[in-house]
Amino acid sequence: MEAAAEPGNLAGIRHIILVLSGKGGVGKSTISTELALALRHAGKKVGILDVDLCGPSIPRMFGAQGRAVHQCDRGWAPVFLDREQSISLMSVGFLLEKPDEAVVWRGPKKNALIKQFVSDVAWGELDYLVVDTPPGTSDEHMATIEALRPYQPLGALVVTTPQAVSVGDVRRELTFCRKTGVRVMGVVENMSGFTCPHCTECTSVFSRGGGEELARLAGVPFLGSVPLDPELMRSLEEGHDFIREFPGSPTFAALTSIARKILDATPTYLP
Amino acid sequence: MEEVPHDCPGADSAQAGRGTSCQGCPNQRLCASGAGATPDPAIEEIKEKMKTVKHKILVLSGKGGVGKSTFSAHLAHGLAEDENTQIALLDIDICGPSIPKIMGLEGEQYVEDNLGVMSVGFLLSSPDDAVIWRGPKKNGMIKQFLRDVDWGEVDYLIVDTPPGTSDEHLSVVQYLAAARIDGAVIITTPQEVSLQDVRKEINFCRKVKLPIIGVVENMSGFICPKCKKESQIFPPTTGGAELMCQDLEVPLLGRVPLDPLIGKNCDKGQSFFIDAPDSPATLAYRSIIQRIQEFCDLRQSEEENLINS
Lengths: 271, 309
What we know:
- The complex is a heterodimer.
- Chain A is of the alpha/beta class.
- Chain A has one domain: Rossmann fold (3-Layer(aba) Sandwich).
- Chain A contains 9 helices and 12 strands.
- In chain A, the strands form 3 sheets. Chain A has an 8-stranded mixed β-sheet, sandwiched between helices. Chain A has a two-stranded antiparallel ribbon with strand order 3-4.
- Chain B has 2 domains: 38 residues, no CATH class; 266 residues, P-loop containing nucleotide triphosphate hydrolases (Rossmann fold, 3-Layer(aba) Sandwich), CATH 3.40.50.300.
- Chain B is 39% helix and 15% strand.
- In chain B, the strands form 2 sheets. Chain B has a 7-stranded parallel β-sheet with strand order 3-2-4-1-5-6-9, sandwiched between helices. In chain B, strands 7-8 form a two-stranded antiparallel ribbon.
- In chain B, a hairpin with a 6-residue loop joins strand 7 and strand 8.
- The chains are: A alpha/beta, B alpha/beta.
- At the A-B interface, helix 3, helix 4, helix 5 and helix 7 of A face helix 5, helix 6, helix 7 and helix 9 of B.
């Protein structure tokens, strides 16, 4: 059998999970962040790669915006969030000189940066790399998948909200996965209901039922519903320690269950 | 290591392909050959086609999921309530075309006598079809929409865009450059995670000299249907759109609260205004639509004064 291509910076990563959606604003970055934290809670070493060039949300989720990114001899050093180095990130957000500056690039330029991003970050040894993507089925997605293909990603988590208009776009994303050979690990329904803090009535602010229907239509597992939690959002935005606040949120139980399903679906390798 | 230039001088600038920041860019050869320098003939053709279109409004956001398509659709519905006004709604979100669903047009192409809709969604035979196109092909589709669709006499052309600041946005601004866009309405939610993308969008507009009609803050507060008390589902931890608008000196056109009936009606493809005429969200929309009309009328009379002076 032919020897594999030169290993490179992704060789130390055991499993790669893509977080996709056809639709914008469904909470891909939030879910990517929560999933990474839930996996870390289960004792795993996790990295997050944010390939959303136009709207890089991940640094802010961890209060890491403005952190400097350094070059080491193997490429870019990811930003570590804790002393144990159990969670690290890379985002184009770290490379922007002015955060309000728009990255107004056409496809070919985006492709070039994504290729660099995927191959030139010195992740070291990781159990999971969670790759957060922008909405759509275009240049960034094709570039990311092409760059990751040699490393055989575990699969994709597809995020939707309950509304039909979201399901409509995400169905197309599922076709994209099929056409590009990405295995869909399952569908996550986000923003599934809001519990009024005054009277505890739960309202389906963004309609209902979309996630399960989508999973059924596409014949993929439904991994779970994640409710809206403004308190968590507030603490995220105010730059509180998300890592510490997350376990207290109603979303935590949902994400822990989703992470469990992913851990169970991950093939274990004999040493 | 290949450097990707951050300060691209622009494909049609004199420095295209020749600037120091062009070294190593995948497009360098193409730009240096001067291919970008000659203006696309489609721009003039589109200018001709657009002569019968009085007002052109782009609906933008840096962020996804803030309600651009919902807003575009309801702006169209609101303006079309005047039977004497011809409205056209163009959806250039090629990967995620939501407009057909929100307008109740899956399977049909007719809304009202005076409201016409165009979207790539209509060209797809199945709701599962994915449009997996790279930038240049998306640009070609947008060019076709603008140049080859017979718009006829239109009072308002509303263009709904995908999230981001990329090919689609550059193309629509470029192709409509000669035809004069009235301005852009930028949609956000109160959260900083949206505002941070919207600030980029505002800077994009300024960079390409696109006038900004104003910002709409969507999902601004939620009234519990049971106890009627207000909560902030998307808390404005950094001052919301109001503070951002003050800082960046752009008008805040209004705030639209979250009404669960909006989502339900979009799912059914109906106008929310018909289902909930007295909702605070409907009232907010109507006030915003009026301000947009005033802006367009003002620009029109300013232009006419210029021509006549």
